[in-house]
Structure formats: structure tokens, C-alpha cells
């Protein structure tokens, strides 16, 4: 939704401004995209303000925002899974290496087979360590600090104070920013 000002000329030559919100699709694309209904600004701002008060004071919402802020994205989680898989692969390679040593000590395999298999395991370990280094670098670069619940509550409390005690322009600015993101499905 976008704000719209309609100016009416009065008998005495003075003007009166009326503030409305209307569908942004109508403003950009015309009647084919949306109807031209305009909602008085005061009506929609009061409604949004009411929802904001409920939103800001909701413990459930604050906890949900806190959890979302402290949750990593899908790519980060995939890298953690990849790191775990690399650690498991390392354990298996080290077990294979120990088993190979035991086989060589008990003369179950020849020296040539031992050297070839040992070099193969060492090569696999080297490649695995290089991959792990890439994953560690990604995780370190994308690590974010955990935000305490108290800090999220402070932000919500500050917003509530601005809405209650802020000057009219600040409150209208916040409401207009929120309203501009509202979409209406008919």
C-alpha cells in the first residue's frame, strides 16, 4: 500500500488535505491490476498501531524473533553436516590405517601392498583435511554471535516507547514504513 494525498479546494479559496492509503498495484499498473479503493490514513494507521501494540507486548512473538535471530541459515547447517561427515570419514580412515598396520605386522599383506594402501589412506586423509579446512573457514566467516533474549526484549520495549511517547512524525514514519509492506488479497 502507498500513501496518497487528496487536496480539496474549499469555497474561501483555502485547501484541505485528506490522507489515504491505496493499493500500490493500482498506482503503478492501473485498474487492471487492482481496484482504486482508498482507505483513510487515520483508519489504517489506528488498525496497524493496534496490531503493533499487541505484537510488541506478546511474549510468544518476542521469543520467536529471538529464536529466528539465533538460527543459522540452510547453507550454514549444511556445512555443519558436511563437517560431521568429514569427521566420521576421518575416523574410518584411521581405523583402516590401524587395521592395515596390524595386517602388515602379522604378515597378512606384502610390503608393496602395505605401502600402496598406506599411501592411498594418507592421500585420502590429506584431501579430507583440505576439505575440512574449507568448511571450517566457511563456518568461521559466517558465524554470528548469539543475541540474548534480554536484548530482543529491549528492542521491542524501545519500539513500544517510541510508539507511545515519540513525536507524531516518528510514529507516522514507522506506521507508514509498515503499511507500505502490507499487501491485500481480494
Can you walk me through this structure?
By secondary structure, the protein is mostly helical. The chain is built from 7 helices and 3 strands, in the order E-E-H-E-H-H-H-H-H-H. The chain has helices at 24-29, 41-57, 59-69, 74-105, 111-142, 149-165, 168-179, and strands spanning 2-9, 15-22, 38-40. The chain has a 3-stranded antiparallel beta sheet with strand order 1-2-3.
Topology:
Elements: E1 2-9, E2 15-22, H1 24-29, E3 38-40, H2 41-57, H3 59-69, H4 74-105, H5 111-142, H6 149-165, H7 168-179
Task: Give a quick summary of the entry.
By secondary structure, this protein is mainly α. It has helices at residues 24-29, 41-57, 59-69, 74-105, 111-142, 149-165, 168-179; strands spanning 2-9, 15-22, 38-40. Helices cover 68% and strands 10% of the residues.
Low-confidence stretches: none
Give the end-to-end Cα distance, rounded to a whole number of Å.
14 Å
| Estimated radius of gyration | 32 Å
Strand arrangement, major sheet = 1-2-3
Number of helices: 7
- Summed over residues and divided by their number, the pLDDT gives a mean of 86
State which percent range the strand residues make up. 5-15%
Annotation keywords:
68% helix, 3-stranded antiparallel sheet, mainly alpha, 186 residues, 3 strands, elongated
Amino acid at each position: 500500500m502507498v500513501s496518497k494525498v487528496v487536496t480539496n479546494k474549499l469555497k474561501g479559496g483555502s485547501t484541505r488535505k485528506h490522507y489515504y492509503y491505496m493499493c500500490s498495484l493500482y498506482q503503478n499498473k492501473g485498474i487492471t491490476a487492482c481496484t482504486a479503493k482508498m482507505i483513510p490514513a487515520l483508519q489504517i494507521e489506528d488498525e496497524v498501531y493496534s496490531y503493533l501494540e499487541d505484537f510488541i507486548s506478546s511474549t510468544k512473538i518476542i521469543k520467536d524473533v529471538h529464536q529466528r535471530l539465533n538460527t543459522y541459515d540452510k547453507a550454514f547447517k549444511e556445512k555443519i553436516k558436511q563437517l560431521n561427515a568429514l569427521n566420521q570419514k576421518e575416523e574410518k580412515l584411521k581405523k583402516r590405517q590401524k587395521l592395515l598396520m596390524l595386517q602388515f605386522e602379522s604378515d597378512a599383506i606384502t610390503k608393496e601392498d602395505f605401502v600402496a594402501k598406506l599411501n592411498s589412506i594418507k592421500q585420502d586423509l590429506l584431501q579430507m583435511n583440505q576439505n575440512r579446512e574449507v568448511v571450517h573457514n566457511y563456518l568461521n566467516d559466517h558465524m554470528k554471535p548469539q543475541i540474548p533474549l534480554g536484548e530482543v526484549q529491549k528492542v521491542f520495549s524501545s519500539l513500544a516507547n517510541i510508539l507511545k511517547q515519540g513525536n507524531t512524525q516518528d510514529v507516522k514514519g514507522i506506521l507508514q514504513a509498515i503499511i507500505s509492506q502490507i499487501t491485500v488479497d481480494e
